[in-house]
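RECORD TYPE: inverse folding
INPUT: structure tokens
STRUCTURE:
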């Protein structure tokens, strides 16, 4: 266990007893109003299911937090979906349609009379009914305002502390709010520069939606205001009743004895701030052009400009012909491709690039990282230092932590009715958003005028269901990550005409020497019971230009420039609210075509999937800018009008966007899969890592086989997902080729031959990372898994580094990490995060090995690297590294962390719900699976 959780049980028990009698009330139960009747307009007929571990309830009073530490108890409904989610690991092999609700919630509308646990009426025009099994709020309003007020009130009940955290993360004020722990510093430093705003900027976004989106925009802001009013109503009620989240006491916001202190009111601009964090994590795309330029320069330096560019392009794989696609019927959707003759590309001078400094004026612990524990009341001593590792441990959020890149997650499997047993389409789908306690999302049902849906919403922006089901249709999303962010090189200048330097704060803009706008955030903190970090402060600073936020400085042909990052969704963080409003409106979404139109109103880069009783459909959303002819979106571009987005208006950050028809979309395809893979032919990727092997292959191979066999059921499609969720991509997709190279001649070393046999046996058994039996915490092929985990990074380096050379190998690994196994701590959300095998060098290795073996390769690498193209030399390199890997002890492969001892393989892989508050959860078996998941089959339609 982490040191901060090691406390004397007796002390904690005493604290619970003391607080339970004198300091703080426990949250009251709701009144026993009459049961909520079943909703009639439900075409699922008990064939819709969902799950969101660990549980619906994400609030805990101080008494409940202390109880969790003393007895391991959990507040009601805070962990009752965890065992069902985990149970699918062992239960999927014998899964039937009838057994689905052993592992999922019944996602029918309403609550049966005998399943009502509580009923709350925060206003006369809305009722919040919670069910006994999971405590999900079923919100039913007689007015639109009441419905949305109820949604906000329920969000307060279930996620008040989490919403407060995220509005402060978005505003770059996390350390001032929750403490100066280094992880908190890192988190605000990661997210605020992506969306730095003044209060006027945030308010302008509210007004833009209200005034430029017609009646839908006015309704959206009215709904948002009602939602905020509901949050604030619960905020005030819980404060007066002393059943607010206990984290407010532990971080010094409220005194546990006198109740003096305040939970700051929520406003509409807070929703914009939260939306910027959510959208930035999961709906962004592109960027990284400076690093791409550096790797291109490294390739050109090694091979010369022409050959180096050819090598770089073969690794960049913008449109790899062997990549798995979501739209696989051959339809082409050209976007952001490599131009025949690039114009305006702005590559830096070698060695001139420096990152823009963010942090200034450090004081106290911002310099020293010193701890200074406060003199805590005896009752609170068991919780001292609870947040010393940060309110959100470093690297836990996608796109955060040292060296992290934005990661797209989530998956979807859909099969058309002509291939199912029941003749209706089936979908198994959901977002993969990391594992937290509580989750970033919350389950809810909304029923009111113009709204009818059940599913998940991100806490704090839950006016509408963002992924879920309607009366006779369901929808979900995966991160798409197409290129909606570009990098510009602005020429620096001085207003007095003197020679500029890389530090200049003026730039050439349409002939004038314009001043950059300085945006700042000053934060300071003091130690609290929860965070012992000593007093300290610093100032974050970014420079904003008409071409985006400055990220780097460099020279081009000796002239100083600043590189800026400009994304289309900047200043439009919440515009997607219109699309979500439409998706929740049963009068608007009536079929696949209307669903696609609704999804097209969502500005962030997502792949949207749909199923009703008749068809399945897909649409790729995002504000894709229309670029000037000849501009290469993969590299930095000169900040000149000739190379700017077409129709670009810097004041509002608007431009011309590609029309609906040019976004990948489809309806009625035999099946769809998505695991953040490429969307369609000629729809260029915005990053490295979309080649011949991708984790999407784990789904595509299984679903295509099911479709070929026919008679697909909800259970069989769920089994396909669950099997892929336990499979090691390297073992299934790469090991066959590796074995062919190794066995191109007999392996004469008996010990090494035994290792090869071990790996082959694991491959033949499905290359899974799965327990011998439920609860054994030992993998069936534990030694083969250990060998592969030790071997992969060694073999990749031995295969590619000699040929690429140190500099180019380092540049390519900076753009794409070689490994992302569940045991790797540098995955999309750090260690214990579930999501794995999205990015890695498997596609490069696959092509290279097939080239060595003389097999046909479409879109080959420009050179063959393993053994410099010689099969015998390649085999020797692989055997040598395999021998090293086999001899590497488990304690070295799995070095241990705060949660696991050295050598504990199962634990190293295990999913841990990172506590965002005071309640912790048990570790569960690794699954590479959506956090929230839907299983649906509609037998009828309106």
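DESIGNED SEQUENCE:
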């Amino acid at each position: 266990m982490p040191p901060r959780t090691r406390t004397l049980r007796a002390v904690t028990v005493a604290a619970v007893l003391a607080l339970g009698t004198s300091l703080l009330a426990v949250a009251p139960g709701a009144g026993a109003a009459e049961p909520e009747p079943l909703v009639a307009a439900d075409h699922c007929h008990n064939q819709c299911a969902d799950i969101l571990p660990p549980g619906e309830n994400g609030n805990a009073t101080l008494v409940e937090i202390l109880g969790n530490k003393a007895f391991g108890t959990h507040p009601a409904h805070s962990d009752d979906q965890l065992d069902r989610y985990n149970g699918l690991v062992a239960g999927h092999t014998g899964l039937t349609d009838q057994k689905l609700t052993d592992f999922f919630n019944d996602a029918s509308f309403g609550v049966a009379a005998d399943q009502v646990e509580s009923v709350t009426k925060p206003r006369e025009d809305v009722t919040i009914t919670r069910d006994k099994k999971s405590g999900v709020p079923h919100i039913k309003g007689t007015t639109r305002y009441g419905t949305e007020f109820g949604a906000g009130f329920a969000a307060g009940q279930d996620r008040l502390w989490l919403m407060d955290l995220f509005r402060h993360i978005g505003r770059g004020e996390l350390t001032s709010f929750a403490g100066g722990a280094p992880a908190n510093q890192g988190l605000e430093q990661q997210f605020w520069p992506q969306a730095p705003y003044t209060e006027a900027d945030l308010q302008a976004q509210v007004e833009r939606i209200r005034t430029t989106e017609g009646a839908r925009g006015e309704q959206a802001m009215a709904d948002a205001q009602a939602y905020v009013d509901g949050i604030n109503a619960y905020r005030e009620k819980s404060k007066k009743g002393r059943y607010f989240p206990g984290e407010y006491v532990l971080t010094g916001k409220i005194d546990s004895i006198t109740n003096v202190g305040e939970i700051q009111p929520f406003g509409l601009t807070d929703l914009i701030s939260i939306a910027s964090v959510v959208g930035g994590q999961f709906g962004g795309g592109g960027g990284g052009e400076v690093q791409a330029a550096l790797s291109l320069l490294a390739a050109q330096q090694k091979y010369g400009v022409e050959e180096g560019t050819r090598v770089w392009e073969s690794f960049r794989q913008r449109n790899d012909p062997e990549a798995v696609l979501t739209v696989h019927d051959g339809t082409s959707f050209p976007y952001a491709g490599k131009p025949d003759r690039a114009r305006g590309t702005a590559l830096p001078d070698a060695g001139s690039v420096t990152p823009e400094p963010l942090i200034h004026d450090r004081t106290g612990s911002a310099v020293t990282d010193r701890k200074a524990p406060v003199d805590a009341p005896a009752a609170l001593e068991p919780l001292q230092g609870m947040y010393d590792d940060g309110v959100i441990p470093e690297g836990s959020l996608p796109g955060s932590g040292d060296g992290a890149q934005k990661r797209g997650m989530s998956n979807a499997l859909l099969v058309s009715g002509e291939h199912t047993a029941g003749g209706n389409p089936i979908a198994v789908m959901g977002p993969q958003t990391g594992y937290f306690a509580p989750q970033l999302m919350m389950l809810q049902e909304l029923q009111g005028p113009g709204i009818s849906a059940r599913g998940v919403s991100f806490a704090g922006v839950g006016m509408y269901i963002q992924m879920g089901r309607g009366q006779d249709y369901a929808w979900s999303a995966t991160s798409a990550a197409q290129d909606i962010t570009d990098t510009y090189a602005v020429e620096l200048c001085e207003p007095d005409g003197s020679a500029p330097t890389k530090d200049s704060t003026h730039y050439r803009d349409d002939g004038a020497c314009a001043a950059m706008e300085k945006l700042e955030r000053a934060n300071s903190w003091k130690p609290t019971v929860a965070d012992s970090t000593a007093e300290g402060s610093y100032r974050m600073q970014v420079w904003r230009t008409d071409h985006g936020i400055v990220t780097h400085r460099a020279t081009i042909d000796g002239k100083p420039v600043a590189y800026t990052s400009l994304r289309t969704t900047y200043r439009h963080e919440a515009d997607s609210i219109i699309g979500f409003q439409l998706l929740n409106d049963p009068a608007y979404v009536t079929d696949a075509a209307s669903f696609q139109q609704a999804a097209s109103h969502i500005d962030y880069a997502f792949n949207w999937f749909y199923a009703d009783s008749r068809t399945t459909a897909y649409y790729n959303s995002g504000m894709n800018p229309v670029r000037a002819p000849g501009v290469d979106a993969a590299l930095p571009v000169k900040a000149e009008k000739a190379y700017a987005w077409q129709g670009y208006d810097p004041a509002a950050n608007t431009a011309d966007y590609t029309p609906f028809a040019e976004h990948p979309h489809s309806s009625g395809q035999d099946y769809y899969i998505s695991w953040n893979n490429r969307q369609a032919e000629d729809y260029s990727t915005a990053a490295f890592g979309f080649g011949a092997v991708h984790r999407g292959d784990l789904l595509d191979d299984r679903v295509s086989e099911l479709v070929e066999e026919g008679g697909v059921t909800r259970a069989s499609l769920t089994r396909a997902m669950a099997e892929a969720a336990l499979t090691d991509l390297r073992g299934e997709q790469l090991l066959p080729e590796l074995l062919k190279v190794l066995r191109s001649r007999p392996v004469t070393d008996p010990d090494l031959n035994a290792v090869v046999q071990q790996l082959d046996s694991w491959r033949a058994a499905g290359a899974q990372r799965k327990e011998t039996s439920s609860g054994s915490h030992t993998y069936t092929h534990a030694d083969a898994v250990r060998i592969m985990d030790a071997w992969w990074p060694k073999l990749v380096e031995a295969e590619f580094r000699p040929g690429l050379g140190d500099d180019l190998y380092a540049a390519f690994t900076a753009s794409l990490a070689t490994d992302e196994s569940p045991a790797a701590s540098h995955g999309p959300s750090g260690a214990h995060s579930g999501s794995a095998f999205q990015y890695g060098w498997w596609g490069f290795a696959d092509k290279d090995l097939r080239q060595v073996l003389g097999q046909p390769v479409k879109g080959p690498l420009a050179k063959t690297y393993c053994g410099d193209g010689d099969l015998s030399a390649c085999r020797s390199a692989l055997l040598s590294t395999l021998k090293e890997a086999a001899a590497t002890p488990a304690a070295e492969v799995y070095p241990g962390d705060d949660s696991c001892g050295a050598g504990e393989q199962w634990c190293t892989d295990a999913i841990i719900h990172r506590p965002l508050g005071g309640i912790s959860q048990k570790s569960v078996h690794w699954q590479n699976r959506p956090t929230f998941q839907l299983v649906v089959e509609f037998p009828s339609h309106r």
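NOTES: Residues 489 and 563 are 5 Å apart (CA to CA).
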